[in-house]
Amino acid sequence: MDSDPVAVHGITERPRLACYLLIGHGDVITRNGMNQSSNYLRSLDSIETVEMARLVDLIISDAIEAGASDIHAEPWEDSLLVRIRLNGVLQELLRLPADLMEKVSGRLKVMANLVSYEMDRPQEGHAQTGSEMGGVELRMSFFPVIRGNHQGGVLRGEKIVIRIFDPKRRSFNLDHLGFESSTLVTMKHLLSKPSGMILLTGPTGSGKTTAIYAALTHLVEKHGSAISLSTVEDPVEYNLPMISQAQIHHAKDFTYPVALRSLMRQDPQVIMVGEIRDAETANIAVQAGLTGHLVISTIHSGSTAGVFARMINMKIEPFLLASSIIGVLGLRLIRTTCPYCAQPYQPEASYMKLISEGLLEEASLRHGGGCEHCVMTGFSGRVSVTEMLEVDEAVREAIMEKLPTRKLQEVAIGRGMKTLWQAGMERVIQGETPLEEIIRSIPSDR
Ligand SMILES: [Zn+2]
């Protein structure tokens, strides 16, 4: 982004307000031009006359229009920094005077029916925007923090994060996630099996939930009312048609194991478990996969092949794993280059070394220069890069022998698995995304 805030907005030509200085230099330009929230602040004669409900609405509206997934508001020294997450990366939207901290927080808490004067304990709530803002769901989280000011004092503040769930922006179609075609074919093949376990793995924000909902939607489209699908989730992020979704409730002891055990008596064919994070859940899920159910779940693991070691650490016998798990899908989300401003470019030499010579010959390296279509980011949207580990006879043997993760990965590669890094590099060679994006988001194979 431009380093000179004044030049960006031409503010010097008509200085009216002290609050101009607080408008961030990283302003995101929305598709209709400037931020509505900073325009509003500029229109004021004094910061004292700000209508808090209006300002908060405009910040939310700016974020929704830019296509952001989250809003972050946190005190930084003498200002309240408001950022939005666009295509996975935080960008500055506004800087407000720190004095507005409590008012912004109070307004949001009123929207979410929370105790508005309490700032010294974490609070969570949700609110829905009006239809003029698309009826979008906002999940708010307030977390008490300490902040210092320029005078060396220490004040109380809050970090506020709002997740934006826009039902219209979500597509749960396996064909539209950007999966490599070989992954798509294998995934559909695995989903056609009557039993076994499919696990998805990747860090938070790698597209696991979207992929798992797309897999369930695929099954509903294929089988209609002839199939019984149930989920146990924490939280249920979207309501899917024709699927029974259950929400975990820890305070009422409705935990994953309790829910799953009960669900087994509900004659399900397909069971989706939001996340396997303890031995008990892992055990029931593995048993379900062995007894005629198709189980789909996610698990945290450093790598796709590492899922087996993680499950063995949860005291699952390797022979049970080998017969239950039919495939593991590793996922990452990468930003794709904006088609309107894509142009050839030369990454820096140290990065270029990461591309093998053979590939370099056919490479058409491109990145986005930034234009109005991509709100000057050079990127438009995100797609999944995948690593599909299908469990065949050779992999099954490797699991039963408890081979270390690295060795197990080698066996899978020998059976045709393309690693995340290889898949990412192919996107670079095809000019779909710049090299830097893959380096940023995918661990190297070396
Ligand atoms: Zn562009």
Short recap of the structure:
Helices cover 33% and strands 24% of the residues.
Tell me what the structure shows.
- The chain is an alpha/beta fold.
- It has helices spanning 5-9, 36-43, 52-66, 101-111, 181-191, 208-223, 256-263, 279-290, 306-313, 318-324, 349-352, 357-361, 393-400, 405-414, 420-429, 435-441; strands at residues 70-76, 79-86, 89-97, 123-128, 137-148, 154-165, 196-201, 229-233, 244-247, 270-273, 294-298, 325-337, 342-344, 366-368, 379-390.
- It folds into two domains: 5-167, 2-Layer Sandwich (Beta-Lactamase); 170-441, Rossmann fold (3-Layer(aba) Sandwich).
- It is built from 16 helices and 15 strands.
- The protein is globular.
- Mean pLDDT is 88; it is low at 1-27.
- It binds zinc ion.
- Zinc ion binds next to loops.
- The site of zinc ion has 9 residues, from loops.
- Within CATH, the superfamily of the largest domain carries the name P-loop containing nucleotide triphosphate hydrolases
Q: Uncertain regions: pLDDT < 50 for 5+ in a row?
A: 1-27
CATH architecture of the largest domain: 3-Layer(aba) Sandwich
**Mean pLDDT, as a whole number?**
88
Instruction: Count every helix, treating DSSP H or I runs of 4 or more residues as helices.
Output: 16
Q: How would you characterize the largest beta sheet?
A: 7 strands, mixed
Give the percentage of residues in beta strands: 15-25%
Total domain count: 2
CA radius of gyration is 24 Å
Structural class from helices and strands? alpha/beta
CATH topology term of the largest domain: Rossmann fold
State the separation between the terminal residues, measured CA to CA.
32 Å
**Looking across the biggest beta sheet, what order are the strands in?**
9-8-10-11-7-12-15
* Tertiary shape: globular
